[in-house]
Amino acid sequence: MNTNLRIAIYESSLIIRNGLGSLLKKINGLPVVLSDISEGDSLGESLRIQKPDILIANPYLLQAHSLAHWREEGGNTELKIIALVSTLLPEEMLRDYDAQITLYDRAESIKQTILKLVETQEDTEADDEQQSLSAREKEIVVCVVKGMTNREIADRLYLSTHTVITHRRNIARKLQIHSASGLTIYAIVNKLVELDDIQQVKPQM
Fold first, then answer.
1. End-to-end alpha-carbon separation of the chain, Å?
2. What are the structural domains, with CATH classification, of the chain?
3. If you placed Cys at 73, which of 24, 44, 68, 113 could pair as Cys (CB 3.0 to 4.6 Å)?
């Protein structure tokens, strides 16, 4: 983890907020920026201002609305929410949380719970980055599956050949596709081209 992790604690008890915050600061290998939100604060407004990556919250304080509501209120649909469990709670109250910690958990256990959430989010973001092509890259994909050479693509799109080659490398990296047939399938599935548009002789990647 190269950057600080922003964590907000939402709990009515000052002792619990301060105690958990102190523990998180002392965990080796977990660089965090902490903020706390008391019961009297506006949670949605606090989330919008503080922009945490993770919210650790007393489930009783969130039960008026769904977790999706609080994510939307805070302007971050990817916000990870951890239930801070201090008493025995019904299973349905905890079902939608990304994870749970209790007042009795050891520091190492809390660290692993948080790191697992962060790693999952980073993997998801990497997958999203691989799948998303820019408008220019999509244009180049269309040209490639239609059998155009790098020079022809460059002339068509008013680019240099070097730029076309760079775009094609980026496309291969993002999609993890390194063959013309694979790229053709991708283009058809994602409705970038129609079957009739593709030449019989497939281009070489």
1. 35
2. 5-129 (3.40.50.2300), 135-197 (1.10.10.10)
3. 44
Query: Quick count: other Cβ atoms within 10 Å of Cβ 12?
Result: 13
Cα separation, 204 vs 199, in Å, equals: 13
Strand 32-37 with 99-102, pairing = unpaired
Chain segment 94-150, per-residue pLDDT in tens: 989 999 999 999 999 999 999 888 876 555 555 555 457 888 999 999 999 988 999
What would the two tokens of residue 137 be?
């890259």
Cβ–Cβ < 8 Å for 53, 7: yes
Give me 149's structure tokens.
């050479």
pLDDT tier, 92 (very low <50, low <70, confident <90, very high otherwise): confident
CA dist., res. 159 & res. 63, Å (int):
55
**Residue 29 token pair:** 């290998």
- Label the pairing between strands 54-57 and 32-37: unpaired
Q: What distance in Å separates the CA atoms of residue 57 and residue 93, rounded to the nearest whole number?
A: 13
12 vs 92: CA distance, rounded Å? 22
Residue 64 corresponds to which tokens in the numbers above? 């008026």
DSSP code string of 135-168: HHHHHHHHHHHTT--HHHHHHHHT--HHHHHHHH
